[in-house]
Amino acid sequence: MAGDAFLDVIGSRYAPVRMPAPRRAAPGGAWAGRAIEAFAPAVAVLLALALVAVTGLSRRSGVPDFLEPYAYGYFIDRYPLFVFALIYGAARIIAACAAPGSGGSVRRTVFALAGVVILGLAGLYPTIGGLILRGGYATGGMAFLTGQPLWLAYALGAAVPAMMLGGIVGLTIIAANRSLRPRWRRVGWGALSFLCVWFGAAMIGLAHQVGFGPWPARAMTGREAGVAAGLLLIAMAPHSLLVALRRRRAVA
């Protein structure tokens, strides 16, 4: 009896301590974080559009000599909303690298900066449009010249910028703040992301067809800013919602 009592005392004193269960983020906080990551890039685009409209920024404002190649040219006149697509891509990289993930602070910073620089070069070098719009224009133009219907040539032309912009953004996010272990489900999410970006590229290419004015040849009017905001929201909505859904599944 005495021995049993002694063992009970020893066991209770030196029993292994159970570690408390890890705390899970509150549903409200998790949803707020996902919403910021998913929709902050769209907000950044709309704020940039509002800034351009309020300040009356245009060619008439006068630009330094080194900026003239980006203020003038065929592509800025034909696809004026492309500059906001670049802002969306850069903001998407920053938002994803700032969100929770597997990347360390140095890894996130290095790849985020590299991704933004590469995106800028692809979209702005040697002039506005860069390789992104030139590749799409060449693809769509050749498809039309070979006898393809106009709608198909336009779709093919929009697919190339979507692939280039989406590829730069997606690869940057994976390199900066995602697990580097290959996973098959990434292929499915990547395909859905491409379709969303493809849709967005096709939408912003229709700016003049839906009534957007000649900006940047002159200042943007309030009506034109409203048209641009509506078209950009339609273009960005599918991809933003897809990001929110994907992050929800990752957190759950």
What do these coordinates show?
The protein contains 10 helices and no strands. By secondary structure, it is mainly α. The chain has helices spanning 2-14, 27-55, 68-71, 74-78, 82-98, 105-124, 130-145, 150-177, 184-204, 222-251.
Write the layout of secondary structure elements.
Blueprint: H1 2-14, H2 27-55, H3 68-71, H4 74-78, H5 82-98, H6 105-124, H7 130-145, H8 150-177, H9 184-204, H10 222-251
Helix pairs in contact: 2-5, 2-10, 5-6, 5-8, 6-7, 6-8, 7-8, 8-9, 9-10
How would a crystallographer describe the biggest sheet?
Answer: none
Point out poorly predicted stretches. 9-15, 21-26
- Calculate Rg over CA atoms: 25 Å
Number of strands: 0
Mean pLDDT: 86
Question: What's the helix count?
Answer: 10
Reading the helices and strands in chain order gives HHHHHHHHHH
Distance between the termini: 52 Å
Shape: globular
User: What percentage of residues falls in helices of 4 or more residues?
Assistant: over 70%
Name the structural class. Answer: mainly alpha
Strand content: under 5%
Short characterization:
With 252 residues, the chain is mainly α.
Characteristics of this structure?
single chain; 252 residues; mainly alpha; 10 helices; globular
